[in-house]
Structure formats: structure tokens, C-alpha cells
Amino acid sequence: MIRVGIILGSTRPGRNGEAVAQWAHELAAKRGDAEYELVDLKDYDLRHLDEPNFPAMGDYAHEHTRRWAEKIGSFDAFVFVTPEYNHSIPGALKDAVDFLYAEWGNKAAGFVGYGVDGGTRAVEHLRSILSLVGVATVAQQVTLSLFTDFENMSAFRPAAVHEEKLNAVLDQVLAWGGALRPLRAA
Predict the structure, then answer these.
(1) 5 in Cβ contact with 37 (< 8 Å)
(2) Which of 99, 139, 123, 104 is closest to 5 using CA atoms?
(3) Total-model pTM
(4) 77-83 and 3-8: which strand pairing?
């Protein structure tokens, strides 16, 4: 069975992403077609990139990096839940990607973005970053607006249409994650 990590990409206090990631995880788990796990960056204590060696070497000096590498290495695919901060992703998410290299390779990713404009620019930026570590990104994505999918820009109340969009993302992530298995095995 394909393992999908739903990565909560914000560590900010009071973040909206926690509710969004829980929503995505609950809907995904109901499908019963893969093993879905919610992965919160806050649980990994990844400091600003503090590894002395290049990530491509895979020679991690710190326990927090080894824990992160083991977790990311255990998945076949990902769904990234990211806010948009100043037209991009949070620094904590960028660092989390940069800590590793081989663990990301030949896997698939989909996206759930949120922000004033649905997080679309953050998602596009994250697509570009992930391509450089060998992650294939799917076309479908969920875009949640702080104006229409959050009450008072904080209480998550997604429009019903987003459930259908998330299922489309998951369909593609599972298809690509499965198709890339032979490359990961090699």
C-alpha cells in the first residue's frame, strides 16, 4: 500500500494550517486506498539548516536530521499543506526540504495551499523547489482563500467543492506515487 505523508508546512504560532492539514488527513483516511500520515514540522525541531555536509551526501550529523530523513524516506508520496507568506512558502518548509536530498527522490507530491489568494504563488514556488530534489508534482491542487474558506480569517470552514478537489489531488498523487515505485526500487 502506498504511504502518503501530509506535511504541515507552517510552524507559526496560531497557524491556520493545523486545521487545514487535519481536514486533509481526515478526508484522505476515509478513502481507505493508501496509508496517510499527518507530519507536522513542529514535531521535528529542524533548526535553520545546521548540517555541515551537503544533503546529497546523506551524511547527517544531527539526530533531528536523521529522524526527519527516516520519516520522509518512509513515504511514497506527499501532500504539502502550505500557507502563502509574501508570495512564497514559509522558511521552515523551505529548510525542511533543504535538509534532505535522496529521501525526496522519485516520489510524487500534491498541494493544498491557503492564503489571501488561495496560496497559489506559494504552491508554484514549492513545485519549483521540489523539482530540484526529484519530486514529481501533480497538476491538481486545492486553493483555500482566507476570505471565503475561513471565518474571520482564522476558523477553517472550507467550501464543499474543496473536498472534490482534494480527492482529485489524492487520485493523482497515488497514481504517480505508484508509477514511480520502480524508480525508487532501483
Answers:
(1) yes
(2) 104
(3) 0.97
(4) parallel
